[in-house]
Amino acid sequence: MKLVEYADSEMMAMALADMMASELRAALRQRDRVLLVVPGGTTPGPVFDDLCGARLEWERVDVLPSDERWRPEAHIRSNARLIRERLLVEEAASARLLPMYARDRTPEDAVGDLAEAMGASLPISVLLLGMGADMHTASLFPRADNLALALEPGAPVLVPLNVAGEPEPRVSLSARVLNDAMSKHLIIIGDAKKAALERARGQSPEVAPVAAVMDDLTVHWAPE
Ligand SMILES: O=C1O[C@H](COP(=O)(O)O)[C@@H](O)[C@H](O)[C@H]1O
């Protein structure tokens, strides 16, 4: 794991967006279509605001959330909603957002079909993850019912998870799929998350799920 520290979150967003755009351009030189995976939550919005203006062949880019809260896209908590509103605009409007939610179905019932639909786009070319102060990444929460399955070396692409205290069920790409990414970034802001990341080092992924994705990971940190 490599930690890059920035003076503020604005500089971090610009630098990270530049880096991801370069990686996407490099991946597009190698493949017809490339897969960009990004988180939801409160942190990545400013990166999306910068990345969406990057000049690259977005029509050859598939975009997928790292995980989804089981809500329709119109819902305020939908990760897809954030991605569509903040990333798939301007230059990036021609990218294709892959679904991670199916209306009128449960996560358990839908993950097989959703995973099959995303299968042709794998592996991930560029991955950006977020992390909570509880050391969860994507929707791999320490207290999730299916965490052990999501961490297995032979895990399915997409795993349904119920997390005590969270307002809705979740689905998440498994650690195996996240770790197959050609480039892996994690974005965090503030001292509490930096301390949580330090605590996670050396802990088992069952206790600190972010530890499952630390190999070859570049962590981008800025103060609050
Ligand atoms: O619930 C989620 O949380 C994490 C971290 O979110 P943040 O608001 O603390 O930045 C996020 O990466 C994940 O995609 C999301 O579903």
UniProtKB/TrEMBL annotation:
Pathway this chain belongs to: Carbohydrate degradation; pentose phosphate pathway; D-ribulose 5-phosphate from D-glucose 6-phosphate (oxidative stage): step 2/3
EC numbers: 3.1.1.31
Keyword terms of this UniProt record: Hydrolase
InterPro entries: 6-phosphogluconolactonase_DevB, 6PGL, Glc/Gal-6P_isomerase, NagB/RpiA_transferase-like
GO MF, any single term: 6-phosphogluconolactonase activity
Catalytic activity from the UniProt record: 6-phospho-D-glucono-1,5-lactone + H2O = 6-phospho-D-gluconate + H(+)
Domain Glucosamine/galactosamine-6-phosphate isomerase per the UniProt entry, residue ranges: 8-221
A UniProt-annotated Pfam family: Glucosamine_iso
Known role: Hydrolysis of 6-phosphogluconolactone to 6-phosphogluconate.
Family: Belongs to the glucosamine/galactosamine-6-phosphate isomerase family. 6-phosphogluconolactonase subfamily.
Protein name (database record): 6-phosphogluconolactonase
Organism in which the protein naturally occurs: Roseovarius pelagicus
